[in-house]
Amino acid sequence: MASPASPDVSPQTLWDGLATRRLVLVVRQNDGAILVANALAEQSLGFDEGELIGRTLAELHDEFELDLIQCRHDLTHGLVAEGELRLSCRDGSDRWLFVESLPHPDIDGATCRLLLARDVQAEIDARSEQRGRLAALERGQGIAEYDLDGKLLRANDIFKALMHGSEQELAGMAHSDMCDPLFAQSGGYADWWQRIRLGEVDEGTRRYVGLSGRAIWLREVFNPTFDAAGRPYKVIQAALDVTKSRSAELQLLESMSYAGRIQMAMHEPSRDILALHLPQRHAVMWQPREAVGGDCFMARAVGDRIWFCLFDCTGHGAPGAILATLVLSVVDRILARDGGLSDPGTVLQRLNRRIKVVLDQEQERIEQLDTSDDGVDGIVFCLEPARSRAIVASTGLPLFVLEPAKEGVIHRWPGGGLGYRGVPTERRWDNREIRCTPDTRLFVATDGVFDQVGGSRSRGYGAVAFARSLQSRVDRPITEQAEGAMHDFEQFQGSQRRRDDVALAGLQLPTGSV
User: Fold this and answer.
1) How many Cβ atoms from other residues are within 10 Å of residue 285's Cβ?
2) What tens digit of pLDDT does each residue of 198-233 get?
3) Distance between CA 103 and CA 115 in Å, rounded?
4) Which of 159, 170, 225, 337 qualifies as a cystine partner to 165, CB 3.0-4.6 A?
5) Using H for helix, E for strand and C for coil, what is the string for 453-502?
6) For residue 342, what pLDDT is reported?
């Protein structure tokens, strides 16, 4: 087979080869008139056979952009070897071509150029779309480019404004000099940047300090860019200023934290009463899902009686905490007035009535969608050590009674809660008498324990598993028994998100009460 340089390869053979793969135009240099056009060129531009002959490139290139006019001139005069040119098709549409300019023998004494072209319309469209996306990003957020060592290469105007610096001031500045010093000086910073420079995408919200000293918060994405060999060579940071929202969020978190301390303080008198009257014979664990929660408890000593209540209010977080505060206030008044004579069922009845009045939920059904229907699940204990018994009433929370060498018993009440619109105002709850020895343990927990999803099957924990955990430690001190049960519960939860507030309590009559 003859080589490309072989004299056996005729000009016609070369022409025919090019003509099947490339758009071919031969133009006169002085005026750009088309003297020769192959079929592919005619078809691509939508012209019939022979229609291109005699036309000038200027006629096919109705441009007002000086750089494109200059490109056309340079290609037809051989001043550049290649370039991108936009030509008009017969139907008025445009076609982008990548054109190579080569010498061509003179035709009729006129100097000519051979223009070999290929259609690059799809590439131009993709490039234009990418430029548009980048321009949109540049207009809407701060953009910064870094080398792999974290030195700033370029920043758009938005980023420079965020950092309160000029291009000269920020050029070459290390990312670590702009971000929060606590983060920059931590051991985690070097590992974090190393992951990014190796090609990992990262996003998050971080604190920065501008050149003016003002702290700002940026919601940002770090995206490495890769060279033709697939190796990272630059890192692009896209950032939005979220200082206002982040500041508001931090203020809210601070307020919630403060509210959490208040809610903990509300429980302290109850803890003190239990420590005084049931030393080493009680356990209470209270874990709101957030800083505050809807679970709450109360202990009061009235005469020779020890009252203990555990409530699970609708919702969690701030709404649940507000209802919990109301519940504790109402129950405290009930016990202060009638705690020496009343019984747990009556306490629940009065609480139900008061909650329905305060929340305006006395009507069972109402058409308005924006009205409340909130309530409480709860259990009330009245311990009477002198009689070796506990009187208990519940709106649905189960009671676990355990003794050494005996099988545990779960007492259940009809559910439905109290305070809700569907609960009758005069609803009554049954009292149950639990005969107790000093070894008898009474445990209760809120629904946050039983309904928590976890385990290998992602199912609810349930009352039976909780009872089994308690029973396995019935010979241990009650505090260890409760801690062990909480440990089992947390092991079951595993990596699952906590669904609700969690509270559990265990009570034992004082020794010598028989």
Assistant:
1) 18
2) 999 999 999 999 998 889 999 999 999 999 888 999
3) 9
4) 170
5) EECCCCEECHHHHHHHHHHCCCCCCHHHHHHHHHHHHHHHHCCCCCCCCE
6) 86
pTM for the predicted model, two decimal places: 0.63
Least confident of 125-139, 344-358, 498-512: 125-139
Sort 126 into a burial class: Cβ within 10 Å, 0-12 / 13-18 / 19+: exposed
Nearest 5°: the CA angle 286, 265, 284 is 25
Q: How far apart are CA 153 and CA 122, in angstroms?
A: 31
Q: Is 397 helix (H, G, I), strand (E, B) or coil?
A: coil
Q: Where are the beta strands (DSSP E) in 68-210?
A: 82-88, 94-107, 110-119, 142-146, 152-155, 202-209
Give the DSSP letter string of 298-321.
EEEEETTEEEEEEEEESSSHHHHH
Q: Note whether 281 and 513 are within 8 A (CB).
A: no
Residues ≥6 apart with Cβ < 8 Å to 153: 145, 146, 147, 234
- Residue 65: which region, alpha, beta or left (left: phi > 0; alpha: psi -120 to 50)? beta
Angle formed at CA 117 by CA 11 and CA 96, multiple of 5 degrees: 165
Q: How many CB atoms lie within 10 A of CB 395?
A: 26
Cα separation of 418 and 424, whole Å?
9
248 CB-contact burial (10 Å; exposed 0-12 / middle 13-18 / buried 19+)? exposed
Strands lying side by side in the sheet with 23-28: 34-37, 23-28, 110-119, 94-107, 82-88
Tell me the longest C-alpha to C-alpha distance in the chain. 130
Q: Per DSSP, what are the bridge partners of residue 285?
A: 504
**E strands present in 303-404:** 305-313, 376-384, 389-394, 399-402
Residue with tokens 């003002």: 214
Which residue from 269, 499, 314, 511 is spatially nearest to 417, judged by alpha carbons? 314
Rounded CA-CA distance 167/160 in Å is 7
| Among 453, 443, 451, 413, CA closest to 430 | 413
